[in-house]
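Q: Got a minute? One more chain.
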Amino acid sequence: MAKPRHIPSGDDALASEEDGASAEKDQPRILLVDDDTELCASLRRLLCMEGFEIDAVHTAPEGEQLATEGNFALIVLDVMLPGGDGRMVLRKIRALSDVPVVMLTARGDETDRIAGLEAGADDYLPKPFSARELVARIRAVLKRRLPQPPQPQVIAIGDIEIHPLTREVLQEGVEVMLTGAEFDILLLLVKSAGKVVSRDEIAEICLGRPVAPFDRSVDNHVSNLRKKLGMFCRGTERIRSLRGTGYIYTGHTETP
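A: Always. Here it is, folded:
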């Protein structure tokens, strides 16, 4: 398989060659996996102008190989791909890496979106979409990975231990594998334990964007958290939803 061609993003740059090389070195590297070559070419041009370094492939096997071998800041992955299913590719990526993944899905296909989030996607965007919105989603996901203000070493709540510095979650001493978005949502809910956190607040703080009409991404992430963490031993809900309002984590935190 031929290696994807690297296209530099300095077409319009007037800086010196040395400055351009230095800037390119610091550019976040993104992998596009989509069989629509025209879409990839268009996104490549836009993302390069936005300061990203882009590689693009167009089949599931190529996407799986490059995603698991390359060093990417983020992967944009389509669900429908020649040679395989994007969700299967995502599961194989997640078995080896926690690199952020934004899934592209068919408009209105809630099954694909839910399956993508359950497989470990950090966010999804239905087709057709605005290229500028994709850039905003990418920046929001990458922003969540930036160094955060000092956090307590451990937050304990019931049978859960959250380690903000290492972004690990332990339940009765066993690590629970969460996506980046799931971890951020759990941390927010636990820090507000006993209080209602609105869907809008969760989206703004944890996903880096407002909730769009008919956007179920917050609900899907919370649903995944419920499945992974289960109920309390006494059979009560760990994360309770209040219709039309938001979510509440029941219990109290203890910070050593």
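A: The two ends are 52 Å apart (CA to CA).
Q: Perfect, thanks.
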